[in-house]
From TrEMBL:
Native source species: Capronia coronata CBS 617.96
CC terms in the record's Gene Ontology section: endoplasmic reticulum membrane
Transmembrane segments: 6-26, 33-56, 76-109
Protein name, UniProt field: Derlin
InterPro entries membership: DER1, Rhomboid-like_sf
Length: 239
């Protein structure tokens, strides 16, 4: 993102060669790099610094600290899903060309859902973190106009759809989570190497094979351990 944006805003790279435009993608040979380059172009001026900072902060924060991305490649799968939905809604439907702000807002929305009940700083005020994506969308509406806000809002739609399909629907409706990280992606991100991952909320362990559970004896409960077995049967006060 830094290299591409520096080249474009420095006048060394034509922005028309990297923006999303479906006729240039669905041709032969296809310019498939536009599917990526349209997500990593910052704004000019101060936006160049702030976009880089916020993208790094929220993207790395989700990848390393979010409890929903516990397996290698989970965050990559999330980014691919969010980007695909954004391209379909903001690109093919609304005719947008640059989706950096939409992707950033998707990260912020997911971050807000993971940290519900906490506070976040927005400009000079402190607000509930759940309101942070909507506050940023309102700021875009004021400074960039309705079209810019609509394009950026596609990030919220994409992130909410991911949250609904992977968390809300399976948890509260008993449905199946169809968005699973493919095994090949897990291996590419090191699933066959380290089994321990350091997270902000603790250390996660990824077993290579199922760990056999000891069968509980006597009275049992939903937990296994030293309290699940029945004692020897000695009477209190006896010898």
């Amino acid at each position: 993102m830094f290299v591409e944006s520096a080249l474009v805003h420095g006048g060394l790279l034509n922005p028309m060669s990297i923006v999303f435009h479906s006729p240039w993608i669905f041709k032969f040979p296809p310019e498939i790099w536009r599917l990526l380059s349209s997500f990593i172009l910052t704004g000019g001026g101060f936006s160049f610094v702030f976009d880089l900072y916020f993208m790094y902060t929220y993207a790395s924060g989700l990848e390393l600290n979010s409890p929903r991305f516990t397996q290698p490649g989970d965050f990559f799968t999330y980014v691919v899903f969010v980007a695909t939905v954004t391209l379909g809604t903001g690109g093919l439907v609304l005719g947008g060309h640059i989706f950096t702000q939409a992707l950033l807002l998707a990260f912020i929305y997911t971050f807000a859902q993971d940290n519900r009940g906490k506070k976040a700083h927005f400009i000079i005020v402190e607000i509930p973190v759940e309101l942070l994506p909507w506050a940023m969308l309102t700021l875009t509406l004021i400074m960039g106009g309705p079209q810019a806000a609509l394009q950026q809002g596609m990030g919220i739609i994409a992130a909410h759809l991911y949250d609904f399909l992977t968390r809300l629907y399976p948890t509260f409706q008993g449905g199946r989570n169809y968005i699973q990280t493919p095994a090949v992606i897990k291996r590419l991100f090191g699933a066959d190497r380290s089994a321990f991952t350091q997270k902000a909320y603790g250390t996660t362990f990824r077993p290579g094979r199922p760990v056999p559970q000891q069968q509980a004896r006597g009275w049992t409960s939903g937990f296994s351990g030293s309290w699940t077995g029945r004692g020897a049967g000695r009477r209190l006060g006896g010898d």
